[in-house]
Amino acid sequence: MESEISEIPSVFQNLISNQSIFSEVATLIRSKEINFVLILARGTSDNAAHFLKYLVETKLGLPVGLTSPSTVTIYGSKLNFKNTLVIAISQSGQSTDLVTYATAAKSSGALLVAMTNVDSSPLANLSDLHIPLMAGQELAVAATKSYAAELLASHLLVSAWAGSGINTDLLIEQGRALVNNKDLVTAAISVMDIEREIVVLGRGFSYANARETALKIQETSKISVQGLSIADYRHGPISALTSKTTVIICAPNGFSMQSIKSDLDQVRQRNAAIVWIGSAELAAGKDVVIQGSNCGSEILSNIADAIALQRLALEFARKNEMDPDSPAGLSKVTLTI
């Protein structure tokens, strides 16, 4: 897991060097009358799907939904996907329910684009166009470099589709700085305890990273962790917050911090321990900050900050004497039916 996290800046470079595929996919999409977008994914890729959803909705103004594969695999629903783009995201491209749903979607008239890390995967072969994630072989069960690749590939795709450019130089530079900072998460790990409740919060583009941070800690330290929108947290779950809770807040540089200030005030009233990933703008008192990237935009900083959240999960697992590479009960490819 550690070595694969260290490869992320190189994975970024691979994707950036392969701009032609994003232009090709964008040209195909623009040649169709697309009125609606659906994203098909599970697990870590489903977290990346939330990032892609925000990108399409904010940059293109199109409605975006997340699919429910069980509508096809369990209930056998007939789909009507005329003028619909389905984007399938998967590290392996093998999960049975994703392939079954993608097959049904394509048969019902959808344009199917797949992002996978295996060029010969069933999803890749089924798609109208395939975007290779170019992350190389990923051996650790907990996905790291493939998740970061999914975030950047989503941004490159939507930027090509919208006809806008991206300054990626800072992304590579800041990604390398995070990888090379050996003490990146040391202070945060010192205040985290496996016996304390952990909640991870985000808003907007950082919602994906909040969900992924929670998932990575669950996978590698074998404890239950919630990953939520800060707004949703206020609608009920905050009632369980106590002084024994550690709250991790994903707040990338460039994010409008004032949009979460009232929510933060509610968290502080309960004297919870607070760990920030990204910006220290609203940090106070005994808050601990994992200084994230500063890539000149919220979106790019959020992508680079995936390195920080993965290092946090890795080092927390080590503190808890867990094996982060091979968590018990999990396998690299999950063949959900």
Can you describe this structure?
There is one protein chain. With 337 residues, the chain is of the alpha/beta class. It has 2 domains: 165 residues, Glucose-6-phosphate isomerase like protein, domain 1 (Rossmann fold), CATH 3.40.50.10490; 136 residues, Rossmann fold (3-Layer(aba) Sandwich), CATH 3.40.50.10490. 45% of the residues lie in helices and 15% in strands. The strands form 2 sheets. The protein has a 5-stranded parallel sheet with strand order 2-1-3-4-5, sandwiched between helices. Strands 7-6-8-9-10 form a 5-stranded parallel sheet. Helix 2 packs parallel to helix 8, helix 2 packs antiparallel against helix 9 and helix 4 runs parallel beside helix 8. It starts with a helix and ends in an 18-residue tail after the last helix. The model has no long low-confidence stretch (mean pLDDT 95).
Topology at a glance:
Elements: H1 2-6, H2 8-16, H3 19-30, E1 36-40, H4 43-59, E2 64-66, H5 70-73, E3 84-90, H6 96-107, E4 111-116, H7 122-126, E5 129-132, H8 145-162, H9 169-180, H10 186-191, E6 197-202, H11 206-221, E7 226-229, H12 230-234, E8 245-251, H13 261-268, E9 273-278, E10 288-291, H14 298-304, H15 306-319
